[in-house]
Amino acid sequence: MVDLAPFAVMNVVGLLAFAVAGSLKAADAGLDVFGVAVLGVVTALGGGTTRDILVDRVPASLATTGDMSVALVGVGLAIVLIHMLQGRVRDHPAFLTSDAIGLAAFTATGALVGVEAGVSPFGVVILGTITGVGGGSIADILIGRVPVVLRDDFYATPAVVGGLAFLAAQWVGAPTGIPSGLCAAIVFLVRMAALRYEWRLPRV
Amino acid sequence: MVDLAPFAVMNVVGLLAFAVAGSLKAADAGLDVFGVAVLGVVTALGGGTTRDILVDRVPASLATTGDMSVALVGVGLAIVLIHMLQGRVRDHPAFLTSDAIGLAAFTATGALVGVEAGVSPFGVVILGTITGVGGGSIADILIGRVPVVLRDDFYATPAVVGGLAFLAAQWVGAPTGIPSGLCAAIVFLVRMAALRYEWRLPRV
Amino acid sequence: MVDLAPFAVMNVVGLLAFAVAGSLKAADAGLDVFGVAVLGVVTALGGGTTRDILVDRVPASLATTGDMSVALVGVGLAIVLIHMLQGRVRDHPAFLTSDAIGLAAFTATGALVGVEAGVSPFGVVILGTITGVGGGSIADILIGRVPVVLRDDFYATPAVVGGLAFLAAQWVGAPTGIPSGLCAAIVFLVRMAALRYEWRLPRV
User: Where does the Glycine transporter domain start and stop, copy by copy (chains A, B, C) (predicted)?
Assistant: First the structure.
């Protein structure tokens, strides 16, 4: 079994944050309220659904009603926020922060599920990264943008670093909840620092 | 087991209709005959393959030869149609009607499979909707368009309404074939009415 | 079990070739070194991961560390190559040849896995084709291009022909390694001939 408590916390946080981020992205792209709701839900559920397909189980987004309900709450929050924000959303702190929280929380859920599914250490890092970047990438593709994971060096990189931190904490026998909490904290801090200081890798 | 007769009927109708719709979409996008065939097949098989992956089974499109054969018949019909239509296809009734039939029939197959796989009621509606909109969305992404599911409020909405009708019919104990038939009829009628009367939801 | 030796050979060749092809494609699209690495890895792992999901097993890219390691070696080779090539990459023989090698090798892996998974003969050809064209198609979508499989008639066609040759060799009882070797050779030769002689199918 997945260690249930850490997974549940990270899952709810990630669903809410990505539902908000995806909805704001949809509003920025000029979609109407239905498009906002669809893109918010797809962003929230996309990474976890990909994660569950990869480890060969029926996605939680279908098997339960909880994930969809939380995503819809996030969409509701976002619609309020869109009315308050006015104007350009793409680089607004509300978008960038909620997106970073979603990235952090979902990377942790991916690492937790990877360990439980018995994939290789490499696989834990990859599954965490795919889970973290998956929802936003699917949303970007749907609205015809090159996914941020390809445009911004420090979108997948924080997830990889967080996944390694997760493995290290597991390795030293940290108690339940510490590996995933450490992973999420590191992903969030590295992502926000990269945005703040405009970290870039050199061109090839 | 899936209730076989209703599933088989909806599956064949959906495969034919979406193979035609996908082929017409490809011709509209200026693809040559091979691109038309590929996009027709992808549109026909895409939604059902996604559905089967989500409920964790080998897709019927691979396990049997039937689905692919029916899709190729649909492509053949579409090539005849393309020669008869001449000119713009995107808003032609032949395209819009075949697309609505595919949406209706595949939503019903998704709901049937969802019930059989034992997913939640929410999950039945979501799986029906994903199955209905999946093939056309993949086709849109392949030719570089924002999927119609994001551009048109009443593309996913009819599928959601049809999925709810399916659940309601199941709930009251309607005999075999009624829930899926009702679902497909409602999806088709709501979709065609939305096109005819240009239903729109307000912007956020 | 998959016939291990032929699968392992084709898998390593395909991973290296597609990691190079995907990295060159990313450089051509103006991505920086991180984008090059991500697109190289996605191109290398995308087709096989799709293949494994379709036959309902945990992708080798997650379950083992080998595939990712080989893909990263390919990315390293490509970065050296990018510095040597200078300028336009899209139609460079280094790109077209590595892409054709990847297409050939992965089509063979897909056919091998299809036989082992017990899918229909049609399914073997389809799975080979999807595995061959999958990685490049995902990469194209990520950078916002219409996938080559839709733009070029003789991208999926060689894979279909190779898949049929695989089946024929199996049918006559060819010894281990011959069906996959024949398949890969035919895919590669048909693809290169189509590029050299600019084979096209007529418009509809």
Answer: 9-81, 98-169
Closest CA to A53 of C126, B111, B55: B55
- Which residues of A are less than 8 Å from B153 in CB distance? 32-35
User: How far does Cα B105 stand from its chain's mean position?
Assistant: 6
**Separation between Cα atoms, residue A69 and residue A75, nearest integer Å:** 10
Torsion sign (Cα): A150, A152, A153, A157: negative
Cβ contacts of B95 within 8 Å, gap of 6 or more:
B21, B24, B25, B28, B89
Rounded to whole angstroms, the Cα distance separating B77 from B57 reads 30
String of DSSP letters for C160-182: HHHHHHHHHHHHTT--TTHHHHH
Cβ burial, residue A202 (10 Å; 0-12/13-18/19+): exposed
pLDDT 10s digits, C111-165: 999 999 999 898 999 999 999 999 999 999 999 888 988 888 899 999 999 999 9
* Of A87-91, A193-197, B98-102, C70-74, minimum mean pLDDT range: A87-91
Q: DSSP alpha helices (H): ranges in chain A?
A: 4-28, 33-54, 60-63, 66-85, 93-117, 121-142, 148-151, 153-171, 178-196
**In angstroms, what CA-CA distances link C99 with A161, B10, B162, C132, C172?**
31, 39, 44, 10, 30
Cα separation, C102 vs C80, in Å, equals: 19
Query: Are A108 and A128 in contact, with CB atoms under 8 Å apart?
Result: yes
Verify whether the Cβ–Cβ distance C38 to A201 is below 8 Å.
no
Exposure of C174 in the CB half-sphere (CA atoms within 13 A): 14
Contact of C137 with chain A, judged by CB distance below 8 Å, is answered with no
Measure CA of the first residue to CA of the last residue in chain B; give whole Å: 43
pLDDT classification of C83: cutoffs 50, 70, 90? confident
- Mean pLDDT score across all residues of chain C: 91
Cβ atoms A19, A36 nearer than 8 A:
no
Q: Shortest CA distance to B96 belongs to which of B49, B148, B144?
A: B148
CB-based contact B119 A65, cutoff 8 Å: no
